[in-house]
Amino acid sequence: MQLKAPHFMIIFTLLILFLLALVTGSENKPSTIANTATRASLNINETALAFNSATPTPVPPTSTPVPPAHIVVIDPGHGADDWGTFHSDASGKPDLLEKEVVLKIGRKVADHIDPTIKVVLTRTTDISPNTPPQDFNHDGKIDQVDDLQARINIANQNKGDLFLSLHINSSELGNDVSGLETWYTLNRPFGLQSKKFAQLIQDKSLESLNAVGYKAQNRRVEDDLKLDNNGEHIFVLGPNVGNHTAATNMPGALAETLFISNDHEAALLADAKVQDKLASGFANAIEEYFANP
Ligand SMILES: [Zn+2]
Questions:
Q1: Are residues 97 and 50 in the same domain?
Q2: Nearest alpha-carbon partner for 65 in 135, 116, 27, 19
Q3: Which of 44, 110, 128, 140 minimizes the number of CB atoms within 10 Å of its CB?
Q4: Are residues 269 and 216 part of one domain?
Q5: What percent of the chain has pLDDT over 70?
Q6: How far is the CA of 67 from the centre of ligand 1 (A)?
Protein backbone atom coordinates (compact mmCIF):
# COMPACT_ATOMS: atom_id res chain seq x y z
CA MET A 1 0.00 0.00 0.00
CA GLN A 2 1.36 3.35 -0.99
CA LEU A 3 1.58 5.96 1.81
CA LYS A 4 0.04 9.30 1.23
CA ALA A 5 2.11 12.41 1.90
CA PRO A 6 0.23 13.56 5.08
CA HIS A 7 0.59 10.12 6.66
CA PHE A 8 4.26 10.07 5.80
CA MET A 9 4.76 13.51 7.40
CA ILE A 10 3.05 12.39 10.63
CA ILE A 11 5.19 9.23 10.86
CA PHE A 12 8.34 11.20 10.02
CA THR A 13 7.55 13.80 12.75
CA LEU A 14 6.90 11.05 15.33
CA LEU A 15 10.21 9.42 14.38
CA ILE A 16 12.08 12.71 14.84
CA LEU A 17 10.39 13.23 18.23
CA PHE A 18 11.36 9.64 19.24
CA LEU A 19 14.98 10.23 18.24
CA LEU A 20 15.04 13.58 20.12
CA ALA A 21 13.68 11.84 23.19
CA LEU A 22 16.48 9.26 22.99
CA VAL A 23 19.17 11.92 22.59
CA THR A 24 17.78 13.98 25.51
CA GLY A 25 17.63 10.85 27.69
CA SER A 26 21.24 9.98 26.96
CA GLU A 27 22.27 13.58 27.72
CA ASN A 28 20.58 13.35 31.13
CA LYS A 29 22.87 10.55 32.28
CA PRO A 30 26.19 12.42 32.10
CA SER A 31 24.57 15.47 33.72
CA THR A 32 23.41 13.33 36.66
CA ILE A 33 26.92 11.95 37.05
CA ALA A 34 28.25 15.51 36.90
CA ASN A 35 25.85 16.57 39.72
CA THR A 36 26.88 13.61 41.83
CA ALA A 37 30.50 14.47 41.26
CA THR A 38 29.85 18.08 42.30
CA ARG A 39 28.10 16.93 45.46
CA ALA A 40 30.97 14.57 46.21
CA SER A 41 33.46 17.37 45.83
CA LEU A 42 31.22 19.61 48.01
CA ASN A 43 31.16 16.85 50.61
CA ILE A 44 34.93 16.78 50.59
CA ASN A 45 35.01 20.53 50.99
CA GLU A 46 32.52 20.38 53.87
CA THR A 47 34.56 17.66 55.51
CA ALA A 48 37.65 19.81 55.06
CA LEU A 49 35.80 22.75 56.59
CA ALA A 50 34.58 20.61 59.46
CA PHE A 51 38.11 19.40 60.02
CA ASN A 52 39.41 22.97 59.97
CA SER A 53 36.85 24.16 62.51
CA ALA A 54 37.75 21.27 64.81
CA THR A 55 41.42 22.22 64.67
CA PRO A 56 42.33 24.47 67.65
CA THR A 57 42.73 28.00 66.35
CA PRO A 58 45.37 30.12 68.08
CA VAL A 59 43.65 32.68 70.38
CA PRO A 60 45.26 36.12 70.61
CA PRO A 61 46.92 36.38 74.06
CA THR A 62 45.06 39.61 74.90
CA SER A 63 41.69 37.80 74.97
CA THR A 64 42.92 35.03 77.31
CA PRO A 65 42.14 35.85 80.96
CA VAL A 66 45.36 35.49 82.90
CA PRO A 67 44.78 34.30 86.48
CA PRO A 68 46.47 36.55 89.03
CA ALA A 69 49.82 35.27 90.24
CA HIS A 70 48.95 36.37 93.80
CA ILE A 71 45.95 37.62 95.79
CA VAL A 72 46.31 40.13 98.62
CA VAL A 73 43.40 40.94 100.92
CA ILE A 74 43.41 44.53 102.20
CA ASP A 75 41.25 45.06 105.27
CA PRO A 76 40.39 48.70 106.02
CA GLY A 77 39.55 48.55 109.72
CA HIS A 78 36.20 49.54 111.29
CA GLY A 79 33.33 51.01 109.21
CA ALA A 80 29.75 52.27 109.59
CA ASP A 81 28.90 52.89 113.28
CA ASP A 82 32.39 51.81 114.32
CA TRP A 83 34.57 54.87 113.67
CA GLY A 84 37.73 53.42 115.20
CA THR A 85 39.82 56.27 116.63
CA PHE A 86 39.41 59.91 115.59
CA HIS A 87 40.96 63.37 115.74
CA SER A 88 39.07 66.29 117.24
CA ASP A 89 39.35 69.96 116.36
CA ALA A 90 39.99 72.71 118.94
CA SER A 91 36.33 72.76 119.95
CA GLY A 92 36.36 69.00 120.56
CA LYS A 93 34.40 68.14 117.43
CA PRO A 94 35.63 65.03 115.54
CA ASP A 95 37.17 66.15 112.23
CA LEU A 96 39.02 63.01 111.05
CA LEU A 97 37.88 59.40 111.50
CA GLU A 98 40.13 56.32 111.36
CA LYS A 99 37.49 54.36 109.39
CA GLU A 100 37.58 56.96 106.58
CA VAL A 101 41.36 57.32 106.34
CA VAL A 102 42.04 53.58 106.18
CA LEU A 103 39.34 53.09 103.53
CA LYS A 104 40.86 55.82 101.35
CA ILE A 105 44.36 54.38 101.69
CA GLY A 106 43.14 50.80 101.17
CA ARG A 107 41.30 51.71 97.98
CA LYS A 108 44.44 53.36 96.58
CA VAL A 109 46.67 50.29 97.01
CA ALA A 110 45.32 48.70 93.81
CA ASP A 111 46.31 51.84 91.84
CA HIS A 112 49.97 51.19 92.61
CA ILE A 113 50.34 47.42 92.67
CA ASP A 114 51.75 45.15 89.95
CA PRO A 115 48.88 43.94 87.71
CA THR A 116 49.73 40.30 88.39
CA ILE A 117 48.62 40.85 92.00
CA LYS A 118 44.88 40.89 92.63
CA VAL A 119 43.68 43.16 95.44
CA VAL A 120 40.56 42.16 97.37
CA LEU A 121 39.13 44.67 99.88
CA THR A 122 37.08 43.50 102.86
CA ARG A 123 35.01 46.65 102.39
CA THR A 124 34.97 49.29 99.64
CA THR A 125 32.50 51.68 101.28
CA ASP A 126 31.59 52.91 104.76
CA ILE A 127 29.98 49.66 105.92
CA SER A 128 30.82 46.77 108.20
CA PRO A 129 32.13 43.79 106.19
CA ASN A 130 29.47 41.85 108.13
CA THR A 131 26.75 42.99 105.72
CA PRO A 132 24.06 41.70 105.76
CA PRO A 133 24.67 41.08 109.48
CA GLN A 134 25.27 37.48 110.56
CA ASP A 135 25.85 35.92 113.95
CA PHE A 136 28.78 33.79 112.83
CA ASN A 137 29.62 32.33 116.24
CA HIS A 138 25.97 31.79 117.23
CA ASP A 139 26.33 33.57 120.56
CA GLY A 140 22.93 35.23 120.15
CA LYS A 141 24.31 38.70 119.35
CA ILE A 142 25.79 40.43 116.30
CA ASP A 143 28.79 42.39 117.53
CA GLN A 144 32.38 43.37 116.76
CA VAL A 145 33.52 39.74 116.90
CA ASP A 146 31.16 38.95 114.02
CA ASP A 147 32.46 42.02 112.13
CA LEU A 148 36.01 40.69 112.53
CA GLN A 149 34.96 37.15 111.64
CA ALA A 150 33.42 38.53 108.41
CA ARG A 151 36.83 40.00 107.48
CA ILE A 152 38.49 36.62 108.05
CA ASN A 153 35.83 34.83 106.01
CA ILE A 154 36.21 37.27 103.09
CA ALA A 155 39.99 36.70 103.10
CA ASN A 156 39.58 32.91 103.10
CA GLN A 157 36.74 32.80 100.57
CA ASN A 158 38.78 34.93 98.14
CA LYS A 159 41.75 32.56 98.56
CA GLY A 160 44.03 35.36 99.71
CA ASP A 161 47.75 34.63 99.76
CA LEU A 162 48.43 37.58 102.06
CA PHE A 163 46.38 39.71 104.46
CA LEU A 164 46.90 43.33 105.50
CA SER A 165 44.68 45.04 108.03
CA LEU A 166 44.87 48.86 108.01
CA HIS A 167 44.47 50.88 111.21
CA ILE A 168 45.49 54.23 112.68
CA ASN A 169 46.83 54.50 116.22
CA SER A 170 45.66 56.76 119.02
CA SER A 171 46.89 57.76 122.46
CA GLU A 172 45.47 59.72 125.36
CA LEU A 173 48.83 61.47 125.47
CA GLY A 174 47.93 63.42 122.33
CA ASN A 175 50.83 65.23 120.67
CA ASP A 176 53.38 63.50 122.90
CA VAL A 177 53.03 60.22 121.02
CA SER A 178 53.71 59.60 117.32
CA GLY A 179 55.00 57.03 114.84
CA LEU A 180 54.46 53.67 113.26
CA GLU A 181 53.73 50.19 114.60
CA THR A 182 53.13 46.97 112.71
CA TRP A 183 51.86 43.78 114.35
CA TYR A 184 51.86 40.12 113.38
CA THR A 185 51.04 36.77 115.01
CA LEU A 186 54.07 34.53 115.35
CA ASN A 187 51.96 31.65 116.70
CA ARG A 188 50.70 30.51 113.29
CA PRO A 189 52.08 27.93 110.80
CA PHE A 190 53.24 30.91 108.64
CA GLY A 191 54.29 33.11 111.58
CA LEU A 192 57.78 33.81 110.23
CA GLN A 193 56.36 34.87 106.85
CA SER A 194 53.95 37.21 108.67
CA LYS A 195 56.89 38.66 110.61
CA LYS A 196 58.80 39.26 107.37
CA PHE A 197 55.76 40.93 105.78
CA ALA A 198 55.17 43.11 108.86
CA GLN A 199 58.77 44.34 108.67
CA LEU A 200 58.31 45.22 104.98
CA ILE A 201 55.13 47.15 105.81
CA GLN A 202 56.95 49.10 108.51
CA ASP A 203 60.00 49.85 106.32
CA LYS A 204 57.96 50.94 103.29
CA SER A 205 55.69 53.12 105.43
CA LEU A 206 58.74 54.90 106.85
CA GLU A 207 60.08 55.36 103.29
CA SER A 208 56.74 56.72 102.05
CA LEU A 209 56.58 59.29 104.84
CA ASN A 210 60.22 60.24 104.26
CA ALA A 211 59.33 60.88 100.62
CA VAL A 212 56.70 63.43 101.67
CA GLY A 213 59.14 65.07 104.08
CA TYR A 214 58.12 63.47 107.37
CA LYS A 215 60.57 61.46 109.43
CA ALA A 216 58.19 59.23 111.37
CA GLN A 217 59.19 57.50 114.57
CA ASN A 218 59.92 53.82 114.00
CA ARG A 219 58.16 52.53 117.13
CA ARG A 220 58.06 48.76 116.71
CA VAL A 221 57.34 45.68 114.60
CA GLU A 222 56.08 43.18 117.13
CA ASP A 223 54.44 39.83 117.84
CA ASP A 224 50.87 40.53 118.96
CA LEU A 225 51.39 38.68 122.25
CA LYS A 226 53.43 41.76 123.27
CA LEU A 227 50.24 43.83 123.01
CA ASP A 228 48.53 44.63 126.29
CA ASN A 229 45.58 42.48 125.25
CA ASN A 230 45.17 39.94 128.11
CA GLY A 231 47.44 37.54 126.25
CA GLU A 232 45.05 37.35 123.32
CA HIS A 233 46.04 37.58 119.68
CA ILE A 234 44.79 40.21 117.27
CA PHE A 235 41.53 38.56 116.17
CA VAL A 236 41.99 38.80 112.38
CA LEU A 237 45.56 37.43 112.58
CA GLY A 238 45.27 34.91 115.40
CA PRO A 239 44.56 31.17 115.42
CA ASN A 240 41.13 29.53 115.42
CA VAL A 241 40.48 29.65 119.17
CA GLY A 242 37.90 31.23 121.48
CA ASN A 243 35.19 33.12 119.61
CA HIS A 244 36.57 32.30 116.17
CA THR A 245 34.68 30.12 113.74
CA ALA A 246 37.71 30.24 111.39
CA ALA A 247 41.13 31.88 111.30
CA THR A 248 42.80 33.64 108.36
CA ASN A 249 44.68 30.89 106.56
CA MET A 250 47.42 33.09 105.06
CA PRO A 251 50.30 35.21 106.43
CA GLY A 252 49.30 38.70 107.47
CA ALA A 253 50.04 41.88 109.36
CA LEU A 254 48.18 44.75 110.98
CA ALA A 255 49.51 48.25 110.38
CA GLU A 256 48.95 51.05 112.90
CA THR A 257 49.96 53.91 110.63
CA LEU A 258 50.69 57.08 112.65
CA PHE A 259 48.67 58.52 115.56
CA ILE A 260 45.44 60.30 114.75
CA SER A 261 45.58 61.80 118.26
CA ASN A 262 48.73 63.71 117.21
CA ASP A 263 47.78 66.97 115.44
CA HIS A 264 50.63 66.89 112.96
CA GLU A 265 50.17 63.21 112.08
CA ALA A 266 46.38 63.72 111.78
CA ALA A 267 47.04 66.51 109.27
CA LEU A 268 49.32 64.17 107.30
CA LEU A 269 46.70 61.40 107.35
CA ALA A 270 44.06 63.81 106.03
CA ASP A 271 46.29 64.77 103.09
CA ALA A 272 45.37 62.91 99.88
CA LYS A 273 48.99 63.08 98.68
CA VAL A 274 50.21 61.38 101.89
CA GLN A 275 47.43 58.78 101.68
CA ASP A 276 48.53 58.01 98.12
CA LYS A 277 52.18 57.73 99.12
CA LEU A 278 51.33 55.37 101.99
CA ALA A 279 49.23 53.24 99.62
CA SER A 280 52.17 53.11 97.21
CA GLY A 281 54.44 51.99 100.06
CA PHE A 282 52.00 49.21 101.02
CA ALA A 283 51.90 48.11 97.37
CA ASN A 284 55.71 47.98 97.30
CA ALA A 285 55.79 45.94 100.51
CA ILE A 286 53.28 43.45 99.07
CA GLU A 287 55.24 43.17 95.79
CA GLU A 288 58.51 42.61 97.63
CA TYR A 289 56.91 39.99 99.84
CA PHE A 290 55.56 38.03 96.86
CA ALA A 291 58.89 38.34 95.04
CA ASN A 292 60.58 36.57 97.97
CA PRO A 293 58.06 35.21 100.49
ZN1 LIG B 1 41.64 50.55 114.34
A1: no
A2: 116
A3: 140
A4: yes
A5: 78
A6: 32
